[in-house]
Amino acid sequence: EACRCASRHNTSLSENSLAEHRSLKASASVLAVSDRQALETLSRDEKTAFRTLAQEPKTKNCNGDQERLRADKQTQKASLEEKLATLQGDHARSKQEYENQQSEGTRIWYFV
Fold first, then answer.
1. In 10 A of CB 99, how many CB atoms?
2. Number of domains in the chain
3. What is the separation of C-alpha 12 from the centre of its chain, rounded to a whole number of angstroms?
């Protein structure tokens, strides 16, 4: 930039000024690399944070769904256990009736 400005005014930089200019330009390039890397890191961190925040409602919904499913599971389990107890009772009564009928049949056959 300084060279262009100097050429427009028909002036040139001294060797010291030119050396200083080159040194400053090199320093700026080195600093620009680290600044660019820091910016890229911050951009990645921002995207990660944004994705995490976007996932929070989904996570809360999943947790709510899990709780609802656990409650449904407990309700169904209790219902099935009740049905099982009823069926086992019915089976025991039917078995007892069957045995009574067999006993009665044997008794009748024996006395005939």
1. 10
2. 1
3. 64
- The amino acid at residue 112 is V
Instruction: Identify the CA nearest to 13 among candidates 22, 3, 26, 23.
Output: 3
Give the tokens for residue 90: 């019915």
Q: What is the pLDDT along the chain (112 residues), one digit of tens a residue?
A: 666 665 555 556 678 888 888 899 888 888 888 889 999 999 999 999 999 999 888 888 888 889 999 999 999 999 999 999 999 999 999 999 999 999 887 777 766 6
Residues with Cβ within 8 Å of 12's Cβ and at least 6 positions away in sequence, in order, are 3, 6
Q: Is the pTM of this model over 0.85?
A: no
Look up the domain containing 42 and give its range. Answer: 2-111
User: Hey, what are 88's tokens?
Assistant: 């086992």
